[in-house]
Every structure is written in C-alpha cells, then in structure tokens.
C-alpha cells in the first residue's frame, strides 16, 4: 500500500477541515441567522460543488491559481514556487469542493437553535459574538461535528479536483484515491483492492460514528415541555 | 422621573394589518402594567418592540432621558443597550448551562462578586440548592424562578414578561401567580406583562391596557377596566364583571368578610386576611325595590341607581351602594321594578356568587440592589 499517499490524504483532510471550520462557521451563521437579502444567491453558490463535475471545478481553480493569474503570480512571488501542483493548491481546491459538506450541516444546526434563546441572550446584554460562541455554537455542536466529519471524509475520498489541480506527484499531491487509480492503470489489482478496502472501511466507520453521535446528542439536553 | 417609559408607535405588517401602542409607565405605586387581550391582538408585538426585538415603522420609545427608538431620526437601540429583563413565554433558559450559569449570563460583574450575587439571588427565589442543575432537571415552577432570578441579576430598568404563567401546569399556576405578584411588588421597577388570562391580569397588574385588533382600547386601573369597560370590544374581551378592591378582615366557618370602602361583602371562601379583588358577575346581582327580612342571600346592599344602559334584551343597571355595582337584568324585570336614575333599590348577591382574587400580602417595595446585596 502507498502509505505516503494515505498520510498525504489525512494531512489534506485535516487541513481542509480546519480551514472550513474557520470560514464555514461564520458563513453558515450568516446564512442561517441573519436573513439578509441575497442569501439565496450565496446558498446557490455554496451548493454549486454538489452538482458541478469535479473537473469543471478543478478547471476553474487551475485557471484561477495558474502562474498567469494574479493569485498564482502573487503566491509565486511570496513563496518562490507555483501554487498549482502543490499542497497549498490542493488545499484551496479541497476547501472549495467540500464547502457545502461543511456549510450546509452547520447552517442547518444553527437554524435549529431556538430563536427565543438567541433573543433572550441579546436582552441579557450579550453581544452578537458572545451569543454566537456561548449559546449558538454549543447548542449546534452535533451539527458542527457532523459537518466537520463529513468534510474530512469527503476530502479523503476526492479524486477529480485533486487530479486537475494537483496532478500526481508522489508524496506531494498523490492522494489515496489517485494511488488507487494508478494501481488499476498498472494492473496491480491486489494493491488497489487493499487501498480501496481501507478507504471503504474508513468511510463506513466515520459515517456510522457520526450518525451515532447525532442520535445520542439529540437527547443530550432534553427539554420537557 | 428617571424610570419613565413613554412609548407611542405603530408596527405595520401589511397596509391593513398593524399594531398601534400608546403607553406610559413609571416606577412607583402603579408600576405593573398588564397588556390584556385575545391571541393575535398584538400584545406580544408591543412587548417585542419595547425590547428592541422588533422594529416599529412610526413613532418613538423613550425611557427616562434615553431614546430607545425614534422613527423620525432612525435611532433604534439594540436590546443589549436597553437594560431590560425580557422573559419569553417558555422562559428561554439556556438548556446547556446550569442554573448558576444561566443566572450569571447577564451579569458583567467580576467573578467573585458575581458568585456571591448569584448565590444571594438564588436564595431569594428559593433555589439555593439547585445551582448546579440543568434546566431539564427542574420543575415548571423552578424554571420560572430561574428566569426571574436571571432577569433580576441584570438589575433591569424595565421588566417585560410574555405570558409568564402559560407554560405552567394548572395546579402550579395559582401558587406561582402569587409568587410572581410578590416578586413584582418586591422590586421597584416598571413592568409590562402580556397575558390573555383574566386571573393573571387581576392578580399581577396595577393597571391594565386592553388590546383588540391591534389597538389599545382602554388603559386604566384593574377595577376600572373590568367594571367600566370603555366600549363593546373591551367588554367582550374582559367579560362583564364587577371588580372591587377590598381587604379580607375576617374568615371563619367557610365565610369570609371583606371590607370594601364603608361597607362589607360576605364571601363563601376560606382565605387569609389581606388585599383582594372582589369579583361579582353582573348577571348574578338581583335587584329589588325594598329590603326583605328573610332571604338566603348573604349580601344585601341598599343604594341609589346611578345609570341605566340598554344592551339589547337586557339592561345594565349601575347602583351606588358604597361602591359601584353593576347588575344585568331583563327588560320586563326593569319594567316591574320601575327603577329610574335616582331611585333606591336593594341589591342581593349570594355569598357563593362572589369570587375573590388574592393580591398577596402587602409589601414595602424596595429597589433590587437593596434586596440582593
């Protein structure tokens, strides 16, 4: 088995999850709690990666980050190396690709928080930020965990976007799914099978744990009424 | 006066549906205002506008020298900046925080001062041993106490309660109502209470505003509004009833004596001495020309007819017999009695037809800080 590919996938998934927690939570709270005009457009934008073929998304990311783009040039000036076909490039692509897997569960969890509690916190003098961190986030925790786990698992399994943006550099951009593809191309079915089985078992365990967690935490704070 | 709320605003939903409020309220003797009306009449909208959770399109809300809202200048203070206690219908306790954390949430004192203050407030609302519990582990009455404690901890300038007793089971409602009355009397803070329950209004309020169809139809003292509804809409929503303030002076063998002005009223009830509202439905009052010797009715008052008002097949007769009493009688009865304004009649009311609403023991109001520190 290609252990360096496994390690890379885990590293990429962890980094993607952290970045998506940082930008996904504020974005989801805006979507779920503010009720601003124009949120339908943002909703659609966030959901786009669900329906776009990974190649389309990958193509645009490649163009956006390429050496001739402003972003690509700025990155190269700063770090001395191009962003495409690097771990950073992969990370940008993964964040975009997994955006709905994080933001949608976050937003659903925020929207399910009793509005009365939020208003009560305001009337008790708590700022919007304090209300968010002390009331909304703790009460939405199961949904936040679910979103983070889905993001992680989804990133571990992504293929098309990674191939478009990262290529296939061993140890740099060759993730688990690409190593399976390589093995099949090389007719090494045994090796591909072992990696595929690992990915299957991993995905099942992650999803099973998520559902179990959600079922349990659904009753963590029973409110008799 | 520093703690004076003056509000006059319109919250419009559609061109034809709107809620209009004109209110004045200050600390002191008449500090508890009940917003009374059927559901959909706009009570909660008014409360939410006062809290800053909803925004009117016209008018203003001022509190003391502060401008909380002014449509003309676009000023709209956030709920955070209004220093108020707002208790939602189901209390809005944070389910993931303990009783102590809930009470402390609204306080900005430092940690050790806060701990002492929380302990003293919890003791005051009889929750001393419950600090570490989660709201789900409390009874309905205890939850109400936590909500009140949390409101008090903020040292609010204005208390807003939305249907404070609606979330309670029926047997709990009576004792908690008394407790709430005592709580409201113990703090000298103007309070607005939304309710659609007559007994809540009678027990808790000093004044009441009756809402119907998005308008405040009448504002006045509790007995005044119940006994002299301003129009048909108010009468329909409060019911035709005599409400007279009195004091229970004696209670023995299931019969209580209530002093009302110069006279007294006998009631079939065992109650403790103290202030009450005496409620007599107008249709339970019997009128006759002369006083009889032997009747079973415990209450006989002789008085002068002040006014006659026809309401379809019945006539409302207002009699001054030391206090104002309204009787509802049929037109043939009126013809037989031959009463006119100025004539003398005797009013008869059975002791079992009189209903008392306790107003709790009289308490000297104190400021919240006095009580807590």
How much beta of chain A, percentage-wise? under 5%
> From the coordinates shown, what is the CATH architecture of chain A?
Orthogonal Bundle
Strand adjacency order, main sheet of chain B: 7-8-9-3-10-11
CATH topology of chain A: MetI-like fold
Helix-strand category of chain B: alpha+beta
Mean pLDDT of chain B: 86
Ends distance of chain A:
55 Å
* Count of folded domains of chain A: 1
Helix and strand pattern of chain A: HHHHHHHHHHH
Q: Give the class-level CATH name of chain A.
A: Mainly Alpha
What percentage of the residues of chain B does DSSP assign to strands (E)?
Answer: 35-45%
CATH-level-4 superfamily name of chain A: MetI-like
pLDDT < 50 runs, ≥5 residues of chain A: 219-225
Quaternary organisation of the protein chains: heterodimer
Record the SSE blueprint.
The complex is a heterodimer of chains A (225) and B (373).
Chain A lengths: L2 H32 L4 H13 L2 H12 L4 H10 L7 H25 L3 H9 L4 H12 L1 H16 L3 H7 L9 H10 L3 H29 L8
Helix pairs in contact in A: 1-5, 1-8, 2-5, 3-5, 3-9, 5-8, 5-9, 6-7, 8-11, 10-11
Chain B lengths: L3 E9 L5 E9 L5 E5 L6 H9 L6 E6 L2 E5 L4 E2 L7 E4 L11 H7 L5 H14 L15 H14 L4 E5 L7 H17 L4 E5 L2 H7 L2 E6 L2 E7 H6 L4 H7 L2 E12 L2 E6 L2 E5 L6 E8 L4 E3 L10 E13 L2 E7 L3 E7 H7 L6 E6 L4 E5 L9 H5 L1
Parallel strand pairs in B: 3-9, 3-10, 7-8, 8-9
Antiparallel strand pairs in B: 1-2, 1-4, 4-5, 5-6, 10-11, 12-13, 12-15, 13-14, 15-21, 16-20, 17-18, 17-20, 18-19
Helix pairs in contact in B: 2-4, 3-4
Tell me briefly what this model is.
The complex is a heterodimer of chains A (225) and B (373). Chain A contains eleven helices and no strands. Chain A is mainly alpha-helical and 225 residues long.
